Structure formats: structure tokens, C-alpha cells
User: What shape does this take?
Amino acid sequence: MTKHDHAMRFHTLHQHGTFVLPNAWDAGSAALIASAGAAAVATTSSGVSWSLGVPDGEHLGRNDMVAAIARIVRAVDLPVSADVEGGYGPDPSDVAATIEAVIEAGAVGANVEDRLRAGGELLWAIDAQCERLAAARAAADRCGGRFILNARTDVFLAAVGAPQDREATVLERAEHYRRAGADCLFVPGLVDVEVIARLAQRSPLPLNAMLAPGQGPTIAQLREAGVRRISVGQAIASAAYGVVRIATRQLLAGDDRALRDGVRHPEMQQLMATPAGRADDRSLAAAGKDA
Assistant: This one.
């Protein structure tokens, strides 16, 4: 598929129904996500940051993050949406430069969050964030083609204001972000399914929720609530790192059972040789025995 095809496919996914958008952190994880049947792939800033040896929260610069996104794009024949945190700089021009860079890398969408990493406030003021989103929208439009701008608000994740006021605060920001050019609204940190359902009904933008395994609503409940897009953030990366810890502890204790269900070497070889969206079970089976 061409980049135009990916962009149109990703746009269509946001028009009706609910889709799950798994988050990758490197080329290998993206290839496996694609081979499992995902319709699209998102990146996770947490996973990418950890894989490169730094904490999450804009400790990576634009160049390192864009390079990771480019590797993920090359590994799959699917739409890729990029997590670019706050845009890697305070000014609208910084956000615009980041969007231009991820589009050049092949992404067809991006999250831009309103968390303020410096100063005394938790979030960017609405007007300032709208300027940043408008710059992102303009940059995407200059590049041509469809591009899904996912405006993330951390009202719930950062516990901004009084609990009873957060729903109204999200809706206020949603309307302003829509006017600034956002296509979708991402509200991580929210696990109350009744609030999620109200936001899905009242938001002027399609709602993206983050699945919180074992803590919040299930995928079925989020679908029933009217959520358009479900992502998992760092959860798959965290699960993979959990396997590393468990497998190592067992191995050091003389038990190799945790290593027996790993992805076979020839399968990973094949996935890395051919974008996973074009791989099929027959080609994987023909790749030979484990090396």
C-alpha cells in the first residue's frame, strides 16, 4: 500500500465503529503487531524512551523519536500514528517542525498532548495549546494528504482541578481543540465507564480512550460506551519487559520454561525482511527451523 492508501485507511477507521490501536516501541514489536492482524499501529513514547535508555516524558529529543518512528514505519505495511508527546518544544513552530518530520518519516497521524513539562501549571493554557495544535494542523496540511491529529488532554491523567469539574474541562478543551484542527480527542487516565460514555456522546471529536488492563473498562465496555479508538499506551511494552524479568529469574534458578514460547528466529527474520503487513503464514512456515 502507498502512503496515501495508509492515510485514507486510517481516516476511514475514525469514521464509525470502534478499533483497537496497539502501541509499538520498535520495529520488531511493530512487525509482530502487524502480523497479528492489527489494522494500524501506534507508537508509544514510553516504550520508545525505555528502549533507548531514558525515562518517558520528553527526555528524548525530536530527532531520536522521529528516527524510532521511521524504523517502525519501515517495518510494517500499515498506517502508523506517532506519539510525539508535547511536540518537542514550547513554540508552535516547534510542534509544526515535529509534525513535518513524522510525516516525512511516513506517519499518517500523531498525538500531541497538552501536558506542560515545565513551570507551575500542569497543562498548557487552552489558547496556547490551540496555537500549537493549529500549527500542527497547518504543517500537516502543507505536506498534503490525510493526517489524523489526535489532541491528547491530560486533565484526568494529571488530576487537574476538582474531580467533579474534570469532565466539563475536557469538553471545553475538546471544542477548542476541534476548532484548532484536531480530528480526535485522546483522554488517558480515565477509567470511569459512565464518564467515558458521556464524553463519547458529548465530545465534538471522536473519543480515543486508553485501555487500563485490570483497572478500568474492558474493550467490550469501551466499545459499548461509544469510544471510537482504543489504544494501550505502554502496556504491551510493559508486558514484554515483564516477560524479560520473569524469564531471567526462572533461568537463573535453572528453569528455561519461560523461554520456550518465544517467537521463533525464522519468523522474526522473515518479519524483518518483509513488512509484516505483507507477510503470510506460508512464508513464515517456509523460513526454516530455528537457528
The first helix runs from residue 3 to 13. Residues 243-285 form one domain. The first strand starts at residue 19 and ends at 21. The chain has two domains: 3-234, 243-285.
